[in-house]
Amino acid sequence: MRIEGNRLVGEGVKHLKTPNTSGKIKQIKFGIVHDDEGASMAGTESWIMNPSSKVSYHVLIGKKGEVTQFVDFDKRAWHAGVSSWKGLNNINDYGIGLSMQNRNKEPYTEAQIAKAIEVAKVINDHYKLEEWTGHKNISPNRKSDPHNGFPWERFREGLKDSSESKVLYVTADTLNVRSGAGTVHDVVTRVNKGDKLHQLSPIKDGWVEVLVCESNVKGFVSATYVK
Length: 227
Ligand SMILES: [Zn+2]
Prior knowledge:
Elements: E1 2-4, E2 7-9, E3 13-15, E4 21-24, E5 30-35, H1 41-49, E6 59-61, E7 67-69, E8 75-77, E9 84-85, E10 88-89, E11 95-100, H2 110-127, E12 131-134, H3 135-138, H4 152-159, E13 166-169, E14 174-178, E15 187-192, E16 196-199, E17 207-212, E18 218-222
Parallel strand pairs: 3-7, 5-11, 5-12, 6-11
Antiparallel strand pairs: 1-2, 4-8, 6-7, 9-10, 13-16, 14-15, 16-17, 17-18
Helix pairs in contact: 2-4
This protein binds zinc ion.
The site of zinc ion has 4 residues, from loops.
């Protein structure tokens, strides 16, 4: 996936042109994450295409990892409303709106999280954003999205340039990735021989923190079984 002419380009990216946009963003500084509170991807798409809703996001991410862009990234989408962040008001003038398709604080799907990170990284690399934050932080008295299930730590880790970390490969047939450094910690996922990991920390007491490249899952593995 890449950005050309302020639009996402890549397999599976859908473009719809909403009337709910006005003028240009003054300066692209922030990425704002939302929940759409819609019942379905199609429902939210038609809501955003409806001029009477007066709502739009730049990008909507579906539960299966669908990606729909409604507004070019250099144009103002109508997602933030009354808002302020870092001494600035009306964050529609400064922010790219990325919404998760999510209603009533249901859990995000793995495909959706992975795609949101992928899209946000492409945006981040292209526009060099200062920061990503949630709608609830820029409109604290009005909004509570995205809900607390949004994996901010993993999201921010995923935005980092992978070349900043060292790549490791799994040498065991299968290897547990755990939530902490030691076998007492829960297994969060398993990886197989030859799988690629990004090293996130120095090796300490035989354990190393890694990000699994394929799934973007973060955890700890025994350093004996990677090189
Ligand atoms: Zn919102």
